Amino acid sequence: MDNHSLIAQILTDRAAKLSVNATNETVVIVAHGTSKNETLFAGWNASSASLAKKVKLMLRHSKGVNINDVRYSFVNVNATLHPELALRTAVEDVSTTSNPIVVPLFISEGYWTNTKIPKLLTNLSYAYPARGERALTPHDNVPNWIEVTAYKEFTEEFGYPAVQIYDGEKLVDITIEDVGKYHGEGEIEICPCVAFAFRSTLRAFSEEELWDGIPHRSDVKIISANPSDGHRMTFEYILNSTDDVVIQSPTDIINVTADNYVYTFINKTTNESVTLRVQEDIFPERFFELRTKKKLGTATPEEKKALKLLWKKLLEKAMYKPLDRVFEEV
Question: How many Å apart are CA 93 and CA 101, to the nearest integer?
């Protein structure tokens, strides 16, 4: 799991629940670590440092919790080489300037979360999750992580599913890389909009009764509520047409919301259709607010970093979550 953004979100949720006066609080993530192997410890250190940065950005700009800082520490660490990373030392140091919120980074609760960590922090004042919230499980992002990781590994091994469509008598296989190259004008550029448009087409074309099998380009019309180039160019490439792609957006490109991620696929021969919407829980909290601020040029450098993190998180879900957990039929 390492420093995956879905794991960072779990730690963010745990910390946000404990925050009372954020500007006077510092989160201290505590991981297992190792005191015997410095090569392995380097991995623990790098991963935990990355997680701490992500949690700080998510707390401040996704959760709206203006936390003072986020640090990390370990239960097991060579105190001679890394004294500042020992759990008790880190919490004592934080306590001199702010109130510590200690959040464990363990897969499940047990001896480490319920006995060892509290014992190491005896006589110190700190906030700590209640039982049932002292580990990564249970949390929705654990199955989310399993889904996206497994599907990503699968597609890397066997290839990403292609959109199939007839062009006259010829059956055409269109890959997401093909669309990404068209969108990037020669360079493969796959953004969340491209991924949502491509996968919504996969989902819509799976309705065999609507198309009587694999659809023909001449039979398909797509109406999109999203004005982005990623959506428009993906649909146009798949249909090899600009006339049969209609953008009916309720807003402009700057003020896009979840309501724009709606697509209607029409069989022009029968006039039957299917409308798909991206499920709202796919989008990170405050994603659209940060996106709008960046488009308007009012985002701070840290807000831009937070948006980039949330953008990558959204792209991974758009690319690799199961179709029935990305789209709902309207």
Answer: 13
Q: Kindly state whether residues 77 and 173 are assigned to the same domain.
A: no
Q: How many structural domains comprise the chain? A: 2
Q: What is the DSSP string of 148-162?
A: HHHHHHHHHHH-PPP
Q: What is the pLDDT of residues 16-25, one digit of tens each?
A: 999 999 999 9
Answer whether 0.90 is exceeded by the pTM. yes
Q: What is the residue whose two structure tokens read 């940065």?
A: 53
The structure tokens 């991206």 sit at 278
Q: Are 300 and 58 in contact (CB under 8 A)?
A: no
């800082």: which residue's tokens?
Answer: 69
pLDDT (tens digit per residue) in 241-251? 999 999 999 89
3-state secondary structure of 251: coil
Tell me: do 234 and 250 sit in the same domain. yes
120, 139, 158 - which closes a domain: 139
Taking the C-alpha atoms of residue 12 and residue 60, their distance in angstroms, rounded to an integer, is 10
**Domain range enclosing 158:** 142-329
